[in-house]
Amino acid sequence: MEARTLSRIEPAQDVLAASRKWLEPVRTALDRDFLAAYLTGSVLTQGFDPVRSEINALIVARLLAPETLDALARALPAGKKPPRFAPLFMTQRQIEKSLDSFPIEWVEIQEQHLLIEGQDVLGNLQVPRTYLRLQCEHELRAKLILLRQSYVLSAAKPDRLEAVLRTTSSGFATLFRTLLRLAGEAPPADTAQVIERVADVHHLNAEGLLGIYLVRSNPRRYRGHELLPLYRKFLAEIERLVSVIDGMPVT
After folding, report:
1. Which of 45, 57, 109, 225 has fewest C-beta within 10 Å?
2. Contact at 8 Å (CB) between 67 and 93?
3. Which helix (H) or strand (E) holds 155?
4. Of 30, 20, 14, residue with least CA distance to 57
5. pTM, full prediction
6. E strand or H helix at 61, and its extent?
7. Model confidence over 181-196: pLDDT tens digits?
8. Alpha-carbon distance 98 to 103, whole Å?
């Protein structure tokens, strides 16, 4: 097993066992085209919930011909009970050619992955950072628009804002980690610590930014009158953050 990085934790043994069991028919379907299987995403962070969270798996193949895709479709386990898997199938060539198109995603995967089978094909990748700042601003602005739209459309029924915060929290966590990397820091594995550090680096209100994390990590249901102040504070801090990022140089 590879060395542990600063930004991830080791998953629980039962999660690892379930992942390897899920992989067995997938590897059989890929046969000689199989290169590697990784765990990525929230399963390697604090706060992973094996009941509610999906396990992200990156499967790397030599080729993904149409007949291979058909074999994968037949082989994928169909169980609906947790843990649930969200696989990403790519060839090694597709990964290499997409590094400049998805720098946030590949930096995230490169710094936060666990090889569970096969040969390591990510270790020597060089992800260009040229567009990292621009992609970060683009995605933050897009999420800000979504937050505003959802706020207006849910004004009559603010209970609906809980689903907005829960579904967008993972994407914001990725962007917050990217912001720390742009600041030259290694993001912690704990999402709350990441958010607090982003607030510190960019002189934002940590309490306002943490609202989305609190809703995401708390299994209880929030009422509309509880959600509205959390949502407004979070929206205000994201607006301030976008202004800060807009002023950062593109290197």
Report:
1. 225
2. no
3. none
4. 20
5. 0.79
6. strand 54-61
7. 999 998 888 889 999 9
8. 8
